[in-house]
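Quick one:
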Amino acid sequence: MRSIILLSAIFALAACAESTPSQTADTPVQPSVEPPTMTMNEPALDEVSNSLESVLAAQPEAVQARYPFRNPAQTLDFFGIESGMTVVEALPGGGWYSKILLPYLGEDGGLIGANYSIEMQRLFSFRTPEQLKKLETWTTDWPETAATWVEGNNTPISGFFFGAQPESMAGSADAVLFIRALHNFARFQEEGNFLTTAINDAYTALKPGGILGVVQHQMREESPDAWAEGNRGYLKQSFVVAQMEAAGFVFEGASDINANPKDQPQDGDIVWRLPPTLMGSRDNPEAAAAMQAIGESNRMTLKFRKPAA
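Output:
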């Protein structure tokens, strides 16, 4: 048995699965780090296991329609996710990736969801007292809901809040995945060290040699830092790498699996202007068509490893 552990109100609810636009918040000064240039070759689809291919082929049409932008087969293969692993998924939300991971990981693996802390949830202006109260039982509610997503699910499921990780999880995870999940942590870092806490929790949870995988909306390195503080959804690759290395992770490489060079955000642009959200253009067919022509966001795909010793 192998185990691996695997990051305006309407859009923040998708933040647990997508990302949440909201008011600008102070974020930490980004360190002066040269952009990493190491690139790993994109894996071919025929190199991915038949088991994963079968899981992907069984997904609903609406999910498969996003494969050209989200590239789940290549992404999971790049991170080295295999059947039988235990994976921590940051902000699993409605389960876009969870519904792929659960049948793939199987009974010999496990899926652990990790959500924003209640303290961080309070910083979102859209959160009502009723919603915050309901979130208090998320660590039991989410596993119960996720268990219904796959018929006959036999994959162990659990959940925790970042900042309140059970001590029993230390050194038990094979992989942690932050898929479009880091920008709000960075955005609220100064309010409560949320980014540092999330990364440290990931490091603690992982076994020696365990993998941390990142997919994140990417801002161009030459752009002003103010465009990439997280409140617009974008971060710079150099910033992400510096944060992970400061926590002790080793940067193993980057892939252009999820890159989209058509996404060239300018001053004031937020990632949610693009599909599938189309914020600001839903009632304007011409503007929406222009965003659809760009496609989903340009995303960095980064692989880190916890040192083996």
